[in-house]
Amino acid sequence: xxxxxxxxxxxxxxxxxxxxxxxxxxxxxxxxxxxxxxxxxxxxxxxxxxxxxxxxxxxxxxxxxxxxxxxxxxxxxxxxxxxxxxxxxxxxxxxxxxxxxxxxxxxxxxxxxxxxxxxxxxxxxxxxxxxxxxxxxxxxxxxxxxxxxxxxxxxxxxxxxxxxxxxxxxxxxx
Length: 174
Prior knowledge:
The protein is built from five helices and eight strands; from the N terminus they run ββαααβββαβαββ. The protein has helices spanning 18-25, 28-31, 42-58, 104-114, 130-139, and strands spanning 3-4, 8-12, 62-68, 74-82, 88-95, 120-125, 142-148, 154-161. Strands 1-2-3-4-5-6-8-7 form an eight-stranded mixed sheet, sandwiched between helices.
């Protein structure tokens, strides 16, 4: 499913996104707070695209490309990935540095969250990643606590209860 906002289109990743997504995922500043903090190789990015597209064909789980509607330029990714908790997914996103600070992450996340089925969505961020923390707070996420991620790095877990948002920004999904 393709999701649209006034400025963005969220669509499945495609092989034709390899150059653009590869450049974003190879940027050390973009990837500093993603996974283990290491930029992705072109081969790893190609595998990510293939796996994410296949996953989205079967479910709402996986990364989507975020493109500007007016120019069709890929500016980042957003998605939902599994967590160890039943019926709970984790929000992930990343954007090319040229597009930071313009509200695109918040806008894309609002569209994605308004169209997802789990009752609860998590997000994890490096505790010092204030920009992502502000985005998640705007979306209604609340801190759950600090923990170590799968790479042994400190992370802050935040959670959004979509059921509690009946009269909030998510009321359109009910």
